[in-house]
Amino acid sequence: MTQCVVCPQNDDALTFVMAGGKGERLFPLTRDRAKAAVHFGGRYRLIDFVLSNLINSGFYKIKVLVQYKSDSLDRHISKVWRLSSVLNHYIDPVPAQMRVGERWFMGTADAVFQNLNLVENEDPRFVCIFGADHIYKMDVSQMLKFHIGAGAELTIAAVPRPAHEARLYGVLDVNAEGRVTEFREKPADVHPESDGQVLASMGNYIFNTDVLKQVLKEDAEAHDSSHDFGRVVIPRMIEQHRVFAYNFHENEVPGVSGKETAYWRDVGTLESYFDANLDLIGVSPHFNLYNEDWPIRCGHFDLPPAKFVFSGGDSNRMGMALDSMVAEGCILAGGEVSRSVLFPEVRVDSFATVQESILMPGVNVGSYVRMKRVIADVGVKIPDNMQIGFNHAEDRKRFFVTESGLTVIPKGTVLS
Predict the structure, then answer these.
(1) Which phi and psi angles does 23 have, rounded to 5°?
(2) Are 199 and 171 in contact (CB under 8 A)?
(3) How many Cβ atoms sit within 10 Å of the Cβ of residue 291?
(4) First vs last Cα of the chain: how many Å apart?
C-alpha cells in the first residue's frame, strides 16, 4: 500500500466537512438520517469517501459539521474514524450549538461562521471546506500546493461538466491563469441542448484563514444575505480577492488511471445515487473500490463470510450472484442476484430473482420474489411471491417511485 507523504503545509490546515444537509432529493433514504450517512457501495456511508480522501492525503485535523438527524452519522464517525489524539489528529463531529444566537445553521457560510471558535482554537494557516456527499478520489495535498503556488486566497475545486447540467452546480468562468472571473450558482441561462462544457464547482474550497474570517464576518453582518458560499460569499469575493479554480482533471491519485481518473459523482438524486452504485460492479468499474494504493476506509463488521447455498440440480434452485457486489454476512439461499449491490446480512431465499437493485443491511427477500430496479433500505422484509419494480402503478400505492421508474422502499418496512 502506498503511504501518503505528509507535506508540512497539510499539518497547517484545518478541514471542515459539511455534513448537515437534509438531502431532500434523496428522500426517503434521508427520512431517518442525514444525507452524509446514507449507505453506499455495499458497506460504506457517503461521508467515508471525503474522509478517506482527506486521510489518504495527509490531512488529520477534521471537524464534521452536523445538524439534520445526525445520530447515525455521529455513531458512525465515533466508531469508525478514530485517529491518534497523541499526534493531535482527530475527526470530530460538531453539532449545531447556537454559539452566536438562537438559530440553527442558516446556510453553508453561516455554519462555518458559527464555528469560527474552532478555527481560532487551532489557528491554522489554511481552512479547507469540503462537502460530505460526493463520490470521487482526490489527493487534496495537490490542491493545497496549487493554492499556495497561485498565491490564492480562495481556491475552488472544479470539474468540467456538460453544459446542459449547469443548472445543477455552481459554474465558474476563469481566465488564462485559472483565476475565477465569475461565479454563478445553478444558473438557468445556459442552453440545455448545448454540446459544450462548463466548469462546475465540486463544493470543495481552500481558504487562507485570515481571508475566511474576514468574509464570513462581513457576510454575517449582511442582513439580506442567504449566508451561502455559492450564492453569496464567493461571488462577492471575486472582485476583491484572489480566487482561483483548481481543475480536478489534473489531480493524480495512486492506482487510478483511464476512465476513473476524472470520476466525480454528485449523488444528490435517487437516480444519480442508484447509477453511482451500479458504477462499482463492472469488470472494469468506473469507480474502483479495490485500489490498495488509495483505500476507501470504513468500519469492520464482525460477521461471517457471505454464503451461497443450493447448487441447482433438477429443481433449478441455486444461490448465485452475477455482476454484483455481495457483502459479508449475506446468505443467498437458493435465490439469484444480478447487477446488484448487497449490504451486510441480506438474505435472498429460494427461487427469488433480484435484478439491478440495492439491498441495504438486513434486507430479507422471500421465496419466489421478483425485484428489478429497487432500492430497499435497512431492515426491509419482503414476503414470498411479491413482485416489485414491474408495475409502477401498483408500486406507487405502497412505495416511493421516481419518474424514471426506480422503486424505493423506506427503512424498516415489513410487507405482507
Answers:
(1) 65, 50
(2) yes
(3) 18
(4) 48
Angle between helices 71-80 and 47-56 in degrees, nearest 10: 30
Q: What does the alpha-carbon distance between residue 339 and residue 212 come to, in Å, rounded to a whole number? A: 46
Cα 49 to Cα 108: distance, rounded to the nearest angstrom: 20
Residue 216: count of CB within 10 angstroms of its CB: 21
CB–CB of 388/354 below 8 Å?
no
Neighbours of 134 (CB within 10 A): 21
Cα separation of 64 and 130, whole Å? 10
CA distances to 352, 388, 409 from 368, in Å: 4, 12, 18
Inter-residue contact 94 to 63 (CB < 8 Å): yes
Q: Residue holding cell 450472484?
A: 321
Task: Tell which phi-psi region holds residue 51, choosing left (phi > 0), alpha (psi between -120 and 50) or beta.
Answer: alpha
The three three-digit cell numbers of residue 156, written as one number: 475552488
What's the whole-model pTM score?
0.93
pLDDT tens digit sequence for 105-153: 778 999 999 999 999 999 999 999 999 999 999 999 999 999 999 999 9
- When mean pLDDT is compared across 186-200, 217-231, 255-269, 321-335, the lowest value belongs to 186-200
Written as nine digits, the cell of 211 is: 481571508
Say whether the peptide bond before residue 28 is cis (omega within 30 degrees of 0). Answer: yes
Q: In what order do the strands lie in the sheet with 341-342?
A: 325-326, 341-342, 358-359, 374-376, 407-409, 400-401
Given pLDDT bands bounded at 50, 70 and 90, which one contains residue 193? very low
Cell readout for 69 is 438527524
- The residues, any chain, with a CB within 8 Å of residue 26's CB and separated by 6 or more, are 35, 38, 267, 268, 269, 270, 273
Q: Rounded to an integer, what distance in angstroms lies between the CA atom of residue 301 and that of residue 73?
A: 17
